[in-house]
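Holo prediction — nicotinamide-adenine-dinucleotide.
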Amino acid sequence: MKLRIGFAGAGFIAGVHRTNLAQDDRVDVTAVYDVDPARATGAASFEEMLDKSDAVYITAPNTLHADLAVRALQAGKHVFCEKPMATTLDDARRILDAAQSSNRVFQVGFNRRFSKVYAKVKQLLAGHPPHTAHIKMNRGELLKPVWTGDEKVTGGFLFETPIHMFDMMRFQFGEVVSLDARLGRVNDFSILVEFSSGMHATFVTSADASWFFPFERLEVFGEYSTIETGEMETLSYRLGLEAETTTEDFRALPMEERWGFREGDRLFVDAILNGQAPAVTAFDGYRSVVLALACYQSAAEKRRIAV
Ligand SMILES: NC(=O)c1ccc[n+]([C@@H]2O[C@H](COP(=O)([O-])OP(=O)(O)OC[C@H]3O[C@@H](n4cnc5c(N)ncnc54)[C@H](O)[C@@H]3O)[C@@H](O)[C@H]2O)c1
């Protein structure tokens, strides 16, 4: 029998996951619940969707994730929760406790870990340890769609796209032990991040920088080595003083694959069917929330915060 999958939220990202799941013959999407009845199929309520599912994708807006995810876990479902896992410390802790005390798979939607570009960075860093790094994650505006500028829906700018980079820096460089953030005009952060290895990195993120490409870039520097990414599309690196620069280009791949969504969905189903640990855990989700909140606190108090 196929794994029955339900959705809470039938917007953009649900469509991406459903495109991937439609190509996985181990699963059936059996119910999609949305507060907008025109978007729902096979379920008139969240509870009905739970009843018809073994595993649930939480793909509603940010500030709703925690309640929906905890309810799904308590109903005994496997859960794929889109980012951010939560937007408050209490909610993040609530999900972490519920996930760790259940024997179900709980995975967070940090797709970048599985993108070709960032997977390759991780592979290169294994042989060329980083000494320092600079991370950029900008948005053009917080106007379209309108809810991107509404903190009641997003939980705050850092919980939107920048939260991906809190997870990415832990994925590439290890655990964060402290950070020191300063706020610019409104949603412009300059952050100095310290890792348990002793390494430091800078992270700059601006909410309304214009759509200047690339919005997202990682630059990593080691001993006679430099790695530079351009979105999840290209990667250039020079490994060795006399080496040539190599460039890899993933633009020909479909977006679902290039951005790591397909691999993340496949790993979620693998984890459920094979009894494996999830590829991105509730603890990973929890830590990213801790780091975003620490940035707000650090910027408000203008001091370094241990995390
Ligand atoms: N991993 C990624 O890169 C990525 C990319 C885009 C969005 N996201 C995340 O996915 C979530 C959804 O984003 P989106 O772009 O699909 O938004 P969207 O606005 O396109 O879709 C959200 C849907 O949720 C529905 N909804 C609202 N309240 C609900 C409720 N209580 N129960 C069920 N459905 C409800 C809305 O009617 C809408 O159809 C957000 O948390 C966002 O941060 C992640």
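READOUT: The pocket of nicotinamide-adenine-dinucleotide is lined by residues 8-14, 33-36, 39, 59-62, 64, 82-83, 109, 111 (CB under 6 Å).
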